[in-house]
Amino acid sequence: MVKQNSRHGEKELRLGIVGFGRVGRACADVVLEAKDLTVAAIVRRLDRVAQPLPEVFSQVPVVSHTAQVPGMDGVLLCVPTAQVFEAAHDCLQHGVPVVESSILHGEAFQAHREAIDRLAVRFKVPAIVGAGWDPGALSLFRSLFGLLVPEGELETTHRVAASLHHTAMARQVTGVKEALCTEQVAAGGTKQRYVYVEVEPGVDVAHVAAAIRADPLFLNEETLVFPVDSVAALEQEGRGVVLERRSGPGSKGHQRLLFEARFDDAMMTARLMVAAARALPGLSPGAHALVDVPLGALWGEQAYDAERAWL
Ligand SMILES: NC(=O)c1ccc[n+]([C@@H]2O[C@H](COP(=O)([O-])OP(=O)(O)OC[C@H]3O[C@@H](n4cnc5c(N)ncnc54)[C@H](OP(=O)(O)O)[C@@H]3O)[C@@H](O)[C@H]2O)c1
Question: Cβ of 127: how many Cβ atoms within 10 Å?
Fold first, then answer.
């Protein structure tokens, strides 16, 4: 049920969140800050219902079963992968659409999608599956890289390793407050250095980058320098990925696509799950993978502005 939001004159979606772990908490934060969404309820295991939630969620009802919450437009399933099917069944049989992000890939993902699809078709309700960081956002990037460079090789490097020796050098460059240097092996086998620098106020990052690249330690390696607000925060995030796709020998031209990210996977997953929920009202019954959902639909009421901004 989509209702008018009297504050903003927009339509507001009432979303349930099942499971209050890392992703569930992040989803609750994202929904709470969104003008077009409301947390209808948080659904927890029976023995957790009485546990107090952080103060910001004090107004949110906490229940032990989705059937106890009337009028939900969708539910974000944030339970462990092994529990997702059962939780999806509970919602879909009551006519409530779901979004989930189970970490499943390849054939396991397809089997999972088919199982949810059977339920969703039977109960005539839409579901979006694999809507997290990976699978999810990263799948979209991989797919796009494949379309743009069809004959290339895709190299994925997880958790870029820090190089202490190179980090120490970068820290000595004038104007650098803090630095972190990582290394990865690119598709062609060559080494690349990523240097994240936190510079003193007023310092020109281009000069810092030139000084780092000119050092003998970095001379024979491709070195990319990125300014960041806080190296400490970057280290805490702890996770990173580099996707690189290069056109193969004999293909037309020399294409090279590079995507580099450091992130909190729970927050990235929550952002995608919440965006997917905005697309639910426009979808037909059945299970939709994220790649099947039009990008514009993920923006909900902001689709028009997003098109102007990004296209
Ligand atoms: N696609 C991606 O990139 C991505 C990334 C991270 C996670 N995920 C997915 O997101 C989901 C949640 O992950 P998470 O990291 O938030 O997990 P988590 O921190 O372990 O939280 C899971 C929550 O589910 C609830 N729960 C219900 N039944 C449970 C059971 N039998 N055992 C344990 N917990 C149970 C609990 O909440 P209550 O205490 O409130 O009952 C628990 O806190 C998983 O399906 C995971 O695969 C996807």
Answer: 30
